[in-house]
């Protein structure tokens, strides 16, 4: 018997998840607790979406068009998603990136980097945007928005939890491969013996597709880890429209701008689709980069995103901004109104016959001052339950 997927509405989705590559989309899909039916495409939206649920959050996932990566493409996908799914409150960019290991950041392949404001930067640095001055010297200019405060609070809580317990990477990857057996070999751990970091001054042998012919004496000696659980690093992510694959340039940017990861999409998102950047490290952004770790790194990034969503309660972010927005969205979907006069306020609870306006809620509370004043809207779910209880006790 074919599996039946639930059908929701565009307004039911509160998490927007963007990927750059099909392999990232595949691992993101595998992390869903439940997949939903596709929805009709909205006018002027060229994206293709995967819909589902993680924890109590309904998630919409989109991937950049095949072969069209970079900041501009990411911005286009994000704009279309935001137009079609107006209830999105949590925004994530999840995928792979190149690590910039250093003395303070012992980054290994398979680890996860999460954007966090560090130093003078807000979490993302556009390293290819600036101007060329005298003697051909390039100077980076401009700043980008920080991730939303709610997400920064959530990663702080998760970072604190990981001080006393291991992240759930391996648990979530194992569950994904159990549910989708075909992914077992794709998402398998490549092995620590293939995690090789060469000195920044030593370039890859151009004639070889692998590093088998590279000089082993140029490998950086690093202490062995006691387990294979990926580690999480928080800091600035460098973003540009070209691939970083030069060790000395990587290190120069890492030192000068305090960045720990390189990728190609984040700078196109932060100002119009403020989000958290989550990157699984698949190479060291040098000439030795290859694709061996890409699938596993995509899985660790997606697993972190899933654990983050389990940390965030739906009521923390699902907020309709004003009574005006509520009225415009839902005026045609009223089913009943209950009113209670109490003191200086009229407590009016509005019920709706559709979930298109309020995901997982059956009402919205508005307090109308009986004296001069402006109505105040309270979308907090706990307050809604309290008001409903009052109405039940005093009909």
From TrEMBL:
<feature type="domain" description="Nucleoside phosphorylase">
    <location>
        <begin position="15"/>
        <end position="305"/>
    </location>
</feature>
<dbReference type="Pfam" id="PF01048">
    <property type="entry name" value="PNP_UDP_1"/>
</dbReference>
<dbReference type="GO" id="GO:0009116">
    <property type="term" value="P:nucleoside metabolic process"/>
</dbReference>
<dbReference type="InterPro" id="IPR035994">
    <property type="entry name" value="Nucleoside_phosphorylase_sf"/>
</dbReference>
<dbReference type="InterPro" id="IPR053137">
    <property type="entry name" value="NLR-like"/>
</dbReference>
<dbReference type="GO" id="GO:0003824">
    <property type="term" value="F:catalytic activity"/>
</dbReference>
<dbReference type="InterPro" id="IPR000845">
    <property type="entry name" value="Nucleoside_phosphorylase_d"/>
</dbReference>
<protein>
    <submittedName>
        <fullName>Purine and uridine phosphorylase</fullName>
    </submittedName>
</protein>
